[in-house]
Amino acid sequence: MSGPNAAGIRRHQIAIGAIAIAAAILAVGFATTRSVAAGPDAAPSPQAAGYLPSISDLMIATIQPRHERLWRAEQDGNWEFAAYELGNLHGAFNRLGQAHPTEHDISFPDMIASVTEQPFKELNSAIHSKDTTAFAKAYADLTDACNSCHQALNHGVVDVRVPNRTSASDLNTNNTPRN
């Protein structure tokens, strides 16, 4: 074929080919992006892989809520949940120490263990025997242990307390005196 009609057909075929190639490139790019973003085996970005939450982040996100839920479980007489939260609180402290092996040139795992070991044992015993009086003492001892670490690490402004039924948090954010 020759002439103006042949040239128009040829341009039409080239345009269709270009559109098909562009669509294929977009489809491959879209599929690759989706598989990387959503794929379970996708490697995290270098920034995400190198991110280590601070001690404060881990305390606020994991330790403090479990400390509070442990108390609320006992207050509700839910000893099974109290045991569950005690185990999770202990594990959270262990992970914190693994993530931050030293703080101010002090072995952080050793510091944590030195102040929490006895209260954890006493809490475990109180939970298993469903002894509210022993629980209250052990919980207060654990809370005091937390505050002793805060003092030792020059973070005394972080004052944890035994929650009360009306508070939304166990952190003393309004500087009210201890009970």
Automatic annotation (TrEMBL):
Keywords: Membrane, Transmembrane, Transmembrane helix
Name recorded for this polypeptide: Cytochrome C
GO molecular function: electron transfer activity; heme binding; iron ion binding
Source organism superkingdom: Bacteria
Regions crossing the membrane: 12-31
Biological-process GO terms, alphabetical: electron transport chain
UniProt-listed InterPro entries: Cyt_c/b562
Organism expressing this protein natively: Bradyrhizobium lablabi
